[in-house]
Write a structure and sequence with these properties.
The chain is mainly β. The protein has one helix and eight strands, in the order αββββββββ. The chain has one helix spanning 2-26, and strands spanning 28-47, 50-66, 76-88, 91-102, 107-114, 124-134, 142-152, 156-167. A hairpin with a 4-residue loop joins β4 and β5.
């Protein structure tokens, strides 16, 4: 009887440890959607038969839909991006590293890439963003986003994005 009790205790302990380890290995994941307004301050030059545009893009980002923490519906962050776009007859190649800083000071890092559309008023287009970690609650986070951007008159615009994320 003592041996059976001892074996049951070991089995129970192993089950608990496996459950904890499995939870740690499973990680976290989720999704969110956001709308992001911005002001742009770009410089554009003609270069080698095309145009090159670069500069800053700044504005708010608000979570419009979320599967849960750490992204909370209705919460806003400040967004700053450095945009580099090269336009040729072959199309546009745009890259923009972005930092979103939430109210607690935690930062989320995104890298936007787009190969259609432009960066002029009346333009824009669809692209992809990669989630590249961050600080605080975003540390170690990865994922990807589909986004679309519209450039409006007056150096302003709006971006809509839908993201899937995971943490180890």
């Amino acid at each position: 009887m003592a041996v059976a009790h001892y074996l049951a205790s070991i089995l129970f302990g192993a089950t608990i440890m496996f459950g904890i380890a499995h939870g740690a290995l499973a990680g976290e994941s989720g999704s969110f959607s956001a709308v992001m307004g911005f002001n742009s301050d770009y410089t554009r030059i003609e270069f080698a038969g095309g145009n090159v545009t670069g500069g800053a893009l700044r504005g708010p980002a608000t979570i419009t839909k979320s599967s849960g923490a750490p992204f909370v519906e209705g919460e806003s962050s400040a967004r700053v991006c450095i945009v580099y776009a090269k336009e040729t007859e072959a199309g546009v190649q745009l890259e923009a590293p972005c930092v979103l800083t939430d109210l607690s000071g935690d930062q989320l890092y995104l890298m936007a890439n787009r190969s259609i559309g432009d960066v002029a008023a009346g333009g824009g287009g669809a692209g992809k963003q990669q989630i590249m970690g961050g600080t605080g609650k975003y540390s170690g986070m990865t994922g990807s986003c589909d986004y679309s951007v519209a450039y409006l008159p007056g150096d302003i615009g709006v971006t809509q994005t839908k993201c899937e994320w995971q943490k180890p």
